[in-house]
Design brief:
26% of the residues lie in helices and 22% in strands. With 379 residues, the protein is α/β, with parallel strands linked by helices. Strand 7, helix 8 and strand 8 form a beta-alpha-beta unit. The chain is elongated.
């Protein structure tokens, strides 16, 4: 079963409300090691875009500095990684958004993705102090960024003729690595488009790393780019959970009960009377709502832990509160610990994927949606 790297605890400092998120650095390091184990011999980009998937780059850095490089979205994130003391590779996953970004690439020694002709034009006009390493992206079927297979070699020839360019790494991104289609079709497109082209290669995201990298050296290639798996979410949930992939939760969101109510049969709970008790029952009210980043559409039945015991939400999620069935945990009272996701008391675990799935979304969104008003601690 899934487990947490260490026991969790409340910070002793006073909080305006009993709600707190915790980032688990040991779990981040564990999940990074799992990426390495899944793709032997490949180097690893730790993907820290979206402020390390809502964890905070500064909070996550201690757990991820064992990576070979950091992959991220924009100059501001690159500056934060450099400010933390990282001197290794940093990759801009969407490349430069305008020509002047190349100045920052030179100043910060950034590697950057080339996915359209204008970016090559900017690079050709850039007066670089030293040649830069670029990642040339192929659109192998995702149809977001990248050159078509027909245009790819022409783009490579343009780049290879520029004095501003050092190495060219060949890359693509898989659309269906987490599901039944798999990666075979896109791998074939990539292999054909890059045949006989020199340079390192980078293909695997989290799902491809876990599902295919060990047995497919052509997909594993030289660099993998694990993102969501590093943050303790299974990329192919619900087909597989974090226990299957030996991943650990890296973020815990916890609160406490601030009130309890005794319901009679037929009593309703919350806005819209969306839940009615079919028998006498006791419920608890926890200080967490959609203004904290908890999904507003999480329905009755969404799992939650109270004092480490698994139970469920009842009624609608409010801006600042959720209501919880206390039937499985009769001793719970005001002050009892509520785990919305992550690591609970006594090594209990509620995977973020379970909460996201109940709410009709994915773990990525819950991590990234954590509100600024929620204090974050690091262990």
């Amino acid at each position: 079963m899934a487990h947490c790297a260490r026991g969790t605890h409340w910070q002793n400092r006073r909080m305006p409300r009993p709600i707190q998120a915790t980032v688990h650095t040991q779990a981040l390091a564990h999940n990074l090691r799992r990426a390495r184990e899944a793709a032997p011999e490949a180097r690893v980009w730790a993907v820290v875009k979206a402020d390390a998937y809502g964890h905070g780059i500064a909070n996550a850095y201690a757990g991820l500095h064992g990576a070979d490089g950091f992959a991220l979205l924009d100059i501001a994130e690159a500056e934060r990684v450099r400010a933390l003391g990282w001197r290794g590779p940093v990759l801009l996953l969407e490349g430069c958004f305008e020509a002047r970004d190349l100045e920052a690439c030179s100043r910060l020694d950034l590697w950057h993705v080339i996915h359209r002709d204008e970016q090559i034009d900017w690079l050709a006009a850039h007066r670089a102090a030293h040649a830069q390493r670029v990642f040339l992206k192929l659109n192998s079927g995702m149809n977001r960024l990248g050159f078509t297979a027909a245009a790819y070699r022409g783009a490579w020839l343009r780049l290879s003729g520029l004095t501003q360019v050092d190495d060219i790494v060949l890359m693509t991104h898989f659309a269906d690595a987490d599901g039944a289609p798999g990666i075979a079709a896109q791998q074939a497109v990539f292999d054909a488009a890059t045949r006989e082209l020199p340079g390192e290669r980078s293909l695997c995201n989290s799902a491809a790393t876990l599902r295919f990298a060990a047995d497919m050296p052509e997909a594993r290639a030289d660099w993998i780019r694990p993102g969501i798996m590093v943050y303790g979410s299974a990329p192919d949930f619900p087909a597989h959970d974090i226990a299957h992939w030996d991943l650990q939760p890296t973020m815990t969101l916890r609160s406490r009960l601030i009130s309890t109510q005794q319901l009679r049969r037929g009593d309703s709970v919350g806005y819209g009377s969306a839940f009615r008790a079919d028998a006498e029952m006791r419920i608890g009210v926890a200080a967490c709502g959609y203004a904290d980043g908890y999904p507003r559409l999480a329905p009755t039945g969404t799992p939650v832990l109270v004092d480490g015991v698994r139970t469920r939400l009842v009624g609608r999620v409010s801006m600042d509160m959720v209501t919880i069935d206390l039937t499985p945990v009769p001793a719970a009272d005001v002050g009892s610990e509520v785990t919305l996701w992550g690591c609970g008391p006594g090594r209990s675990v509620l995977a973020i994927d379970e909460v996201a799935h109940a709410a009709g979304t994915v773990g990525y969104e819950l991590m990234c949606a954590l509100a600024k008003r929620v204090p974050i601690s690091v262990d």
